[in-house]
Design goal:
Blueprint (H helix, E strand, L loop, with lengths): L11 E6 L3 E8 L19 E7 L1 H11 L4 E4 L1 E3 L2 H12 L8 E3 L5 E8 L5 E5 L12 H5 L1 E7 L7 H16 L3 E5 L10 H8 L4 E2 L3 H8 L4 H10 L5 E4 L4 E6 L2 E6 L11 H15 L3 H15 L12 H9 L1
Parallel strand pairs: 1-4, 1-9, 2-7, 5-6, 9-10, 10-11
Antiparallel strand pairs: 2-3, 7-8, 12-13, 13-14
Length: 324
């Protein structure tokens, strides 16, 4: 990404805007059998659990902060015990949460994630409001950030929130704040998907996974999807491919970066860790291949530890891991 757009007077490296959850992760031997096995099949005893702050944007804020960058987070939480725990967790990591929207009569979102030792995890979510009033994204705060990170599903919440966030993206461009978009289950509300395509058209970087890239473009091959996303307006594209690594498209060309084989304790948070590592490399002005390798390593280290934010590494740990 074009590092010459960065203003050295900016006080935040990354401003992440989006969902704020408290997450409960539990390792289970299998998912419940609800198809004709009676009551015995309905109950599952877990083996381990983790409890902590979560949400795509919150995880990315935590990830870039652990890597040594200055991060801010804006989202909506309830005025309740879960909201207090969320704030405490983020503040303890040095993340600026001074512009959080604290709702008097709403609950903080709670997400429960159940993950078998072998198999895909399942979410059960009791979502609080995602609405962010415009006054919680003031112009001077947007202008203070080198990067503005947004998950795509925030653009499909409701029309008021969508317009607020899209307006924030346009203002960010005026302030030479780089726009980073993670599609992040943008398809949950098809009626508002057009806002996501509006955001792609002005994004400096988009970070979909393989299935999101195909849904956005109709292209099954990641290289074709990346090229199409650039035709749609994105300046740079990084498509995560799971254990295969990633594919990156920029003015440096289109290339694949092989994944790193490692022990997998939990796949939860791997994509957010990759994003954190990728943003770190962009902030440092590294070439795209070096950035992609660092991002792959950040994700590989994260999946050794269960939980949404547990195991997010610092930069020295990633650098040492790459030298092994």
């Amino acid at each position: 990404m074009a590092s010459d757009l960065f203003d050295t007077a900016k006080t935040l490296d990354v401003l992440a805007v989006g969902d704020a959850n408290m997450d409960v992760w539990m390792q289970v031997p299998h998912h419940p059998d609800l198809a004709g096995s009676g009551e015995r099949g309905m109950g599952v005893r877990g083996d381990a659990y983790e409890f902590g702050a979560g949400g795509v944007a919150a995880n990315v804020a935590m990830g870039v902060s652990r890597l040594g960058n200055k991060a801010g987070f804006v989202g909506a939480i309830g005025k309740d015990d879960l909201g207090d725990q969320f704030q405490s967790s983020m503040r303890s990591a040095g993340i600026d949460v001074g512009h959080l929207y604290i709702m008097e009569h709403e609950s903080t979102s709670l997400a429960c994630i159940f993950e078998p030792t072998q198999g895909e995890f399942v979410f059960y979510v009791c979502p609080g409001s995602r609405y962010i009033p415009p006054e919680h994204l003031p112009d001077d705060y947007l202008a203070s950030a080198r990067m503005l990170f947004l998950p795509g599903h925030m653009l499909t919440q409701d029309e008021i929130t969508c317009h607020t966030l899209l307006d924030a993206l346009h203002k960010a461009r005026q302030y030479h704040t780089q726009i980073v978009l993670d599609p992040a289950k943008y398809w949950l509300n098809p009626d508002l998907e057009s806002f996501v395509f509006d955001a792609i058209a002005i994004s400096d970087l988009i970070l979909p996974n393989r299935s999101e890239a195909e849904l956005l473009t109709g292209c099954g091959a990641p290289a074709d999807a990346a090229a199409t996303l650039m035709d749609m307006g994105a300046s740079n594209v990084a498509i995560t491919l799971g254990v295969e690594g990633c594919l990156v498209a920029s003015n440096e060309g289109i290339f694949a970066c092989e994944g790193i084989k490692t022990e997998i304790k939990s796949a939860l948070g791997a994509g957010d860790a990759f994003t954190s590592g990728f943003l770190h490399g962009c902030l440092k002005g590294w070439p795209m291949m070096e950035t992609a390798r660092f991002a792959n390593a950040t994700a590989a280290l994260k999946i050794r530890t269960a939980g949404s934010q547990e195991g997010l590494p610092d930069a020295s740990t990633v650098e040492a891991y790459l030298k092994e």
